[in-house]
Specification:
About 55% of the residues lie in helices and about 10% in strands. With about 220 residues, the protein is of the alpha/beta class. The longest helix has 15 residues, at about 125-140. The radius of gyration is 20 Å and the shape is globular.
Length: about 220
């Protein structure tokens, strides 16, 4: 099975054991202090309430799904998939967590992190956009090919990727839930977009109202 097919099938296929590498799926206990986050992890925001709820669940029922890690130097491990579970396990006061060790290259680690994020239902659209961008760069494919592989429309991929044209301040407002994707899309290519974004939040404008305000700027560009 080639890697493009594995991408389409999801994280489990990518992390399936390759011949000659980590031939066991054995779960092992690893001290939580030996585990490090992945610096290329595209997900930056973890909701405190969600983490606390997961920590309570882990306290009551244990960690139901092991964390996927790879071995790095000095008896340390780096998270491939499961940073949210790792964070919640710390809140739950665990000293050790169940892990499965995988031997993956840097690009495979990033790919796994991106796929895990895409598969999460609560992923915000900016993180989703960064995940798509990362996969396009890693696999050197077009938007259309990525859309086919993930079973999404090409227009969905393109529309989400366009959000990365917005300045960081507006992207942060989307991540924080102050602006919807519809609001953000209406601000693409608009002068003084950040000031308009703050005005949208302050006045609690609807997407339709924002589109009406910004349409004149887009007409002038045609």
């Amino acid at each position: 099975m080639n890697k493009d097919n594995k991408l389409g099938m999801g994280l489990g296929a990518l992390l399936s054991t390759p011949s000659g590498k980590n031939k066991t799926n054995e779960v092992q206990k690893i001290n939580i202090s030996q585990i490090q986050t992945n610096p290329t992890q595209p997900r930056r925001k973890f909701k405190e309430n969600d983490l606390n709820e997961l920590a309570t669940s882990i306290k009551n029922q244990g960690l139901l799904q092991p964390i996927i890690v790879r071995s790095i130097e000095n008896q340390q491990y780096q998270i491939i998939a499961g940073e949210r579970r790792w964070r919640a396990s710390q809140l739950a006061g665990l000293h050790e967590v169940d892990c499965v060790v995988r031997d993956l290259e840097d690009t495979e680690v990033l790919e796994a992190a991106l796929i895990e994020n895409i598969q999460r239902e609560d992923l915000n659209v900016i993180e989703e956009a960064n995940a798509y961008k990362g996969l396009i760069q890693i696999k050197k494919i077009t938007n259309e090919n990525l859309a086919k592989t993930l079973g999404k429309s090409a227009s969905h991929i393109s529309n989400i990727l366009r959000l990365l044209e917005l300045e960081k301040g507006i992207q942060d407002m989307v991540i924080d839930g102050d602006l919807s994707m519809g609001h953000a899309r209406a601000l693409i290519g608009v002068p003084d977009a950040f000031l308009k974004a703050k005005e949208i939040v302050k006045k609690k404008l609807s997407v339709r109202e924002v589109e009406k305000i910004t349409s004149k700027f887009k007409k002038n560009k045609k």
